[in-house]
Amino acid sequence: MPTTTPGHPSDAHRPDHDPSGPLPLAAGVAAAAQVARAADHDGEVATYIAPLAEVDPSRFALAVSELDGTEHLDGDVEVPFAIQSVSKVYSLVLALQAADAGSGVEEELWCRVGREPSGDPFNSLVQLERERGLPRNPMINAGALVVDDVLLDHLDDPVAATCELLSELCGEDIGLDERVLRAEQGSSHRNRSLAHLMADFGNLRNDVEVVLDSYIGACAIAMSSRQLARATRFLANGGIDPASGRRVLAPPLARRVAAVMLTCGTYDAAGEFAFSVGLPCKSGVAGSIVALVPGRLAACAWSPPLDPAGNSVAGRIALHELAERCELSVF
Ligand code: GLU
Question: What CATH superfamily is the domain 25-326?
């Protein structure tokens, strides 16, 4: 059953809905979920580790969290899953925070990882070899490993810091899925290869195994779609957590994170996402996709079966339907 929970009463005023204009969010979420559910068996669940291969493919959730705290929820919104590559967003946020307070984001981060879509699979070794160990962007695995390397220059335990940030942002305790963690530790051969290749080109400073532990730990963070939507609102709010008013990231840096999500956040289907959804998004291989509507809300769709690019099939449909019906596209 879809539910809507109001935010703070002082924030509740909205202009009356024009019936010829966009649908209100509550109706948009319900309608988008209904359309997307019809596709929740299309695609294939990730099978590279048992905990992902064994997930119930009919799980589906759509959660919207407005800046005033109002939530619109449909489906399995309380069921936790490993956030996988969605963690790359929060690792980037922490690295930008640390570099901004250190010797600067250009010097510490952007000279070591680019901001261009890769056009190659998220874990491709070929491009990295051709481009001498410089990853295309922080949303692919190689780029995230560099981000983790930057974090390790500043933090003792980047995974704990990421959990702490996410706990603060969603107001609930966030930890790791230990089963996913152990499975990833035993199967990260390609990520290990990416890390060693970059170390060989001089683009990793910390011990390769320590960087990998950090990367793998972040992938195993477990959250529900409701928690993810809530925790991502600060990026739709110029870097300020709307719940506490704390500035998590300076506004220009928050804009950069959103820009990288739009251009690089959905593997090599970012062009298709910009075309059909029109929002900064980041997807993960467990089937979640977070999305931002600047100045208004964050959303998370979750359905485990993936398309060949690695994005949730029903998740993409849900976000497309929501953006169309409620006219949320940034374009
Ligand atoms: N743990 C996965 C990997 O590194 C994450 C991939 C993803 O979600 O895109 O291969």
Answer: DD-peptidase/beta-lactamase superfamily (3.40.710.10)
